[in-house]
Amino acid sequence: MTQIDKSVVDAQNDKASAALKADYAALGEHLSRRGINIDAIKAKVAHYGVAVPSWGVGTGGTRFARFPGAGEPRNIFDKMDDCAVIHRLTGATPSVSLHIPWDKADPAALKAKAEETGLTFDAMNSNTFQDQAGQKHSYKFGSLSHANAATRQQAAEHNIECIEIGKAIGSKALTVWIGDGSNFPGQTNFTKQFERYLEAMRSVYKALPDDWRIFTEHKMYEPAFYSTVVQDWGTNYMIAEALGPKAYCLVDLGHHAPNVNIEMIVARLIQAKKLGGFHFNDSKYGDDDLDTGSIDPYRLFLVFNELVDAEMRGAAGFSPAHMLDQSHNVTDPIESLMVSAMEVQRAYAAALLVDRKALEGFQEENDALMATNTLKKAFRTDVEPILAMARLEKGAAIDPVTAYRASGYRAKVAAERPAVSGAGGGIV
Length: 428
Ligand SMILES: [Mn+2]
Prior knowledge:
Layout: H1 6-33, H2 38-47, E1 52-53, H3 76-90, E2 95-97, H4 107-117, E3 120-121, E4 124-125, H5 149-169, E5 173-176, E6 181-182, H6 190-206, E7 213-217, E8 227-228, H7 233-243, E9 247-252, H8 262-271, E10 275-280, H9 297-312, E11 321-324, H10 333-352, H11 356-364, H12 368-380, H13 384-394, H14 400-407, H15 409-416
Helix pairs in contact: 1-13, 1-14, 2-10, 2-13, 3-4, 3-10, 3-14, 5-6, 8-9, 9-10, 10-12, 11-12
The structure holds manganese (II) ion.
Manganese (II) ion (MN) is lined by residues 217, 252, 279, 325.
C-alpha cells in the first residue's frame, strides 16, 4: 500500500494555514452578523461524508474510446488504496461502494483491506447490464425484465449474491440499476416488461435482511435508446411502493432530461418517504457523467437546499445515502473525486447558511424576489474557509489537489501497476 506521507501534507498545510486562519476568522465575523455560528456549520461539514464508487478511480471513457491514465488500479485492492488517498486528503469520503462482479474478492480479504485503509463499505452495486465470462443467459435483450424466465432468474440470483457478499463485509444496502429497455417502438410490451421486472425484483427484495435497504436507480435512456424500463422518478416511485418499506428511490443527477427540475423531484421523494439516496455528478446535454458541480453548481446547491430543509424540520424516514458517480475521461480520477467530494460538501455548507425563517416569511408574503435572493445570498457566500478548516482539523489537506500532486502518488503507483490497454469502449 502506497500511503501519502504525513510530512507532505504537513508541509503543504504549514504553507497555507496562516492565510486560512485569517480567512476563517473574517468569514466567522461576517456570518455572526447574519446570526450564524461558523463553528456549528464547520462541525456539520466535518461530519458529512460522501461515498466513492470503486469504479470511479479507474479512467472512464465513452463508447468511442477510453484513454487510460498511468497507474490505473488493477483490482479492488488497488482501488481501495486510491479511495484511501481521496479520504486521507479530503477527510470527506469514508466509504467505498463496490460493484459486483468487477470487485468480487474473498470477503475476509476485503474486510482486511477496509481495516488497513480505514474505509467502510457503502451500498453494493449489481451488474446485469453486461455479460460475464461463462454466463449462461445473455443480457443483450434485458435482465430482470427479460422475456425469458431463466434469464430473469439468473439476474435475480446475481442480485441476491450481491446481498450475500455485502452481508459478509458489513454493507447495508443494494443499489439496482438495469440497462433494460428497447431500441424500437413495438420491440417490447411496456406493461408486460415492467410486470416481469417487478416480479423479479420481489424475489430480490425477499432476500434483503431486515436492516438493509434496496435502492432502485432510474435512468432516462442508454444503453436502450427508445425506452427504458426504469426511466424516471415516477416509475421508480411505483417500484419502491410495490416492493415495500425497505425499498427506496435513488436519484442520479445525470439520469434526467436537460432542464428537469431535479430539486423538486428530491422534494417529492422526501415527502413520500422514499428518497433513498444520490449519485452525484453533473451533465450538460445528457448523462455524460461530468464532475459534480462542474457545470451547474447552483443546481447542486438547490438539491442540498431541499435536503437541509428536510434535515432541519426532521422529516420522517429521511436518511439518504450520498455517493459520487461520475466518469473521468480526461482527468486523474483521484483529483476529480477529491474536487467533487468537496463540491458536494460546499453545496451542503452553503445550504446550511440559508436563512430559513426569512425564506418562509417571503414565501408566505409571495415576495418572489426576496425569497430567491435569500437562496442566492447563501449560495454566493464563499464557504471554502469552512471546508478547509474542517479538513485541517482532521489532519487532511487544506488544498488536497496541491498536496496530492506534491506527494507523487500517481508516479509511485504507475511504477507498481503495469499500463493497461486503451483499446475498446470504456463506459463505466
Ligand atoms: Mn448512477
